[in-house]
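debug: dumping io for the single-chain case to check the tokenizer round-trip. Nothing else runs in this session.
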Amino acid sequence: MSVAFRRENDDEHLEPKFEIPIPPGPNLVTTRGKALIDAKVAELEARLKEDLDETALTAAKRDLRYWQTRQITAEVQPEPDGSVVAFGTRVTFLLNGKERVLGLVGDDEADPAAGLVSFSAPLARALMGAEEGEVLPFNGREDAIEVVGIEVL
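debug: decoded output
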């Protein structure tokens, strides 16, 4: 067999490991979101003290770099008063006639399955600044959203 068709080592076929991408824009967080970030950093720092294999150690270090960056850049937002849809509020609204409830939080705190969406999501941006009873345009329809209720998270 020709030398041109041989691999030098088994690592050559592995996918490269990239840094976790940082979401663009400001790192706005709720008080709860900041606590979650701090807990994640503490968890990863503790994990680095464990006896990890090289792959797990590399992954833990990469994750720690991401979460430390998010911790340093976190901007805890003041609690809203609940008079308008804002960062840190839970809004009940009708979207095309169907009732939905969403909390507007930071990128790292977002969990759509739990009803928490990032403030930078298109639906969240459409809701920002609205008052209870207001009808808003969304997705090409002028009356797609009707705000039913607003409360502080």
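debug: round-trip ok. Residues 25-76 form one domain.
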